Amino acid sequence: MQADPASIYQLLQALLPPPPAPVGGKGLFAEQHFQAGPWESGLRSFSQVIFINHPLSGGLLLLAFLIQSPWMALLAVLGMAAANAVSKLLNLGQSLRDQGIHGFNGALVGCAAAVLADSRSVVDAGLIAVLVAFGGGLTTLILELWRRRFHRRGDPPALTLPFCLITWGLVALVSPQIPDSIETVKAAASPGFVQALAFGLPHSFGQVFLCSDLVSGWLVLLAVAVASPIAAALGACGALMGMITALASGADNAALAQGLWGYNGVLVAIALGGIFHVPGRRTLIIALIGAGLASLLQGLQGMFMGSLPALTLSFVLTTWMLQRLAGRTLPALIPVALHAVVSPEEHRKRFLEASELLGSFRRNLRQRLDGMAPNAGGEQPQSELNSEMQALFDELDLNRDGHLSLEELRHALLSGGTSKQSHQRRISSLNDQLTATMASMDLNGDGHIDSAEFSQLIQRLQRLRQGEERLLLYLMPVDANGNDRLDQEELTRLLQSIGQPPLTAGEQALVFPNQQKSLSWHDFVDRLLLS
């Protein structure tokens, strides 16, 4: 079967030199890339509980477990290792293990077992260790079954549901004496409202992992802030909102101070405010609403589940509910694909990149409909870039007449860096593509492509290439039906996400010519380049 023709965007890139290697930012909060060894994967498994993919964060969390108790650290490592071992045994995907996706529920099972189970004797400790290893492995199986059942974009993620199910099963199996530190509040003088919130904030981060020690709570908060200050701020807002909601519902100040009413709010706020949606004012509002709702659901949960610990079920249910409602009532909020989950800072960069490229695309469409040359009045390239583009233009202008012809452009593309592949394509198909390209490049409509018009196209090509990866990651979740194409309704939703109104009839005719119903991603990138 013949391969589909390359897009104009792909073909024109052969004319440019390879892009420079990305220059990483400096400092603690810069985006970094880490090796994917067993230790790194294990540390990521700890940090993925709080939606962080950072080995240093995982190391801080392990330290928090050690401070809480060496027994918790040991069981957390055991549960994580068992979950990753099952993933490797079943060959479920190296990348998911490397990112800590298969290990975080197992790590939570270990943390819960250290707090909920009585391990005063060697026999009891051995039995708990065996159950943690067994339960940690089961979390991976549940994740895989969930993934196979809910595999379309927009389906609910499993989150920490496997941890909840396995932990409740183990609790029912061994019927432990639940310690005061997790389910009840020790008799003590009730702190004041402000004091309860002040102590409850770090404790809420710690209680995500069932850590009741204050130092451990601060370390969990630091682990989030190291990788993402935005996530740390969102988690703090979520904890405060959850505690205030619980207080209004009659919760005791001492319970608030121990973080028992804030930890679900931490997770909900980070998830909805910066991980599954691009950080912004609207997502912050949804995150705060979600944190309050999670607190209310946690209270209702306690009425129906008896002695079983609440764990993070209200976080899971709230996140599912608000993700679905946000998608229906606020179409400008585009969920981030699960495979592309990184930090809120990176999601914000994707949004800004998409806003710039799509905003320029929309302005160019309007200018074409008004009979104006796209980018008219825009900034001129720097003199150094001008010189480079003029040299490239002169190289392509074989007859030295100061204009590019269809034959000259075709010759350049067929003899470029991808010549072996390009020569195998039908010349007629390439001619059709280049004819459309030449028409787009001819900004003044005189039938010739001069150096200035060529320079503007190359500038747009360079700008698009610089933001291509972030743009495509931002675009992919728009494809609700998962057919790897962009239809008119999906494009409308995409434009709404950056504050743009839907396309007019004239603009739709330019983007979807010949009554096309949808575009492939490559075709849409070509529209961004040539419109």
Notes on the protein architecture:
This protein has three domains: 36-177, Orthogonal Bundle (Ammonium transporter fold), CATH 1.10.3430.10; 192-342, Ammonium transporter AmtB like domains (Ammonium transporter fold), CATH 1.10.3430.10; 348-530, EF-hand (Recoverin, domain 1, Orthogonal Bundle). It contains 25 helices and two strands. It has helices at 8-13, 38-47, 55-68, 70-89, 94-98, 104-116, 122-149, 161-174, 180-183, 193-207, 214-227, 229-248, 253-257, 263-275, 281-304, 313-329, 344-369, 383-396, 406-414, 419-423, 427-441, 451-475, 488-497, 505-511, 521-530, and strands at 485-487, 518-520. Strands 1-2 form a two-stranded antiparallel ribbon.
| Count of helical regions | 25
Roughly what fraction of the amino acids lie in strands? under 5%
Please give the number of β-strands. 2
CATH class of the largest domain: Mainly Alpha
CATH architectural designation of the largest domain:
Orthogonal Bundle
Molecular shape: elongated
Order of helices and strands: HHHHHHHHHHHHHHHHHHHHHHEHHEH
Can you tell me the number of structural domains? 3
Q: What about the largest sheet?
A: 2 strands, antiparallel
CATH superfamily caption of the largest domain: EF-hand
Instruction: Output mean pLDDT.
Output: 79
What is the assembly state of the chains in this entry? single chain
Radius of gyration: 28 Å
CATH topology of the largest domain: Recoverin, domain 1
Main-sheet strand order equals 1-2
Structural class: mainly alpha
Q: Cα distance, first to last residue?
A: 31 Å
Weakly predicted, low-confidence segments: 21-34, 178-188, 376-385, 417-426
Helical residue percent? 55-70%
